[in-house]
Specification:
Helices cover 25% and strands 24% of the residues. It is α+β, with helices and mostly antiparallel strands and 291 residues long.
């Protein structure tokens, strides 16, 4: 059965009809899902019973090489046994809620900033796949912003002004804005990367802004002017008309294209309610995905 895409927002995001991604191996269906990603930027799947190994295997079938040099790995051990699996949870190794001053929790607060996964690496992240294992009985949404529509809505003069600019991205920068302190050894592991401010999807030719809270400066501009421009572009790109909020339920898997979107987690009572999510991100490497 071919997947059916039901739009959830006028600009982007679609829910995909019932399909068991753990068991999905058919190249034709995988290709249709990739085409759906190019069109919608964010795809929502319900009732997915992933194991950790199964989620990693699906990500490799869908898009090949995995992002394993996560920022969190530079500051704390991963309680999960797979390097390519990011722990987006508020519990420790024993399943107990993290204390409010726990360094792991303080670092994870950066996920509440608007960001693009792995923009601080080269190659950067392409598709992120977030699986909801335990969901709290309270709102704990994730918001997405359509960076393609945000680019399209810019006036022509601004588009021309920014089309050849490059931005340095550092995950240390985004955490430091929240008061998180790094050791010199940790900072040495988090040097960051430089990417174009405007990126083009090689399959569709569609342009998008490439922004994140990780963005430190525009390479071709003096720091004050560059930071002001980045702030203005972030304000523009996160206007409500470009944003969709996903309300999680257990068994959801959401896939988003980091070339086309930006996202952030919304606050919830993480000192009261347990939440466990697992994320896999693939690398933005050209060429055919692994079968």
């Amino acid at each position: 059965m071919k997947p059916v895409f039901t739009p959830l927002h006028p600009l982007f995001v679609a829910e995909v009809s019932a399909i068991d991604l753990m068991q999905l191996h058919d190249p034709g269906t995988l290709a249709l899902l990739r085409a759906g990603m190019d069109q919608h930027g964010v795809l929502v799947f319900h009732d997915q019973t992933f194991t950790d190994a199964g989620q990693l295997a699906f990500a490799q079938r869908f898009d090949g090489a995995l992002h394993t040099k996560t920022g969190a790995a530079a500051v704390r051990p991963n309680r999960l046994k797979y390097e390519g699996l990011s722990d987006i949870s508020n519990v420790d190794e024993d399943g107990k809620l993290l204390h409010s001053e726990d360094r792991r929790r303080m670092y994870a607060l950066g996920n509440r900033l608007w960001h693009t996964d792995a923009s601080f690496q080269d190659p950067a992240g392409r598709y992120s796949m977030l699986s909801a294992r335990v969901v709290p009985p309270a709102e704990a949404d994730t918001e997405f912003a359509d960076m393609r529509a945000a680019y399209d809505a810019l006036d022509v003069a601004t588009q021309k002004r920014i089309e050849s600019l490059h931005v340095h991205h550092s995950i240390a920068h985004s955490r430091q804005t929240l008061g998180f302190e790094f050791s010199n050894e940790e900072l040495d592991k988090l040097r960051g990367a430089v990417h174009p401010l405007v990126r083009t999807n090689p399959r569709t030719g569609r342009r998008s802004l490439y922004l994140a809270a990780h963005a430190t400066r525009i390479m071709e501009m003096p720091v004050p002017e560059g930071r002001l421009l980045l702030r203005d572009l972030m304000d523009h790109a996160t206007e409500r008309r470009f944003v969709h909020a996903h309300s999680w339920r257990a068994g959801d898997l959401v896939i988003w294209d980091n070339l086309a979107t930006m996202h952030r987690g919304r606050p919830y009572e993480d000192g009261v309610h347990r939440r466990e999510l697992r994320r896999v991100t693939t690398l933005d490497i050209e060429g055919a995905p692994a079968a």
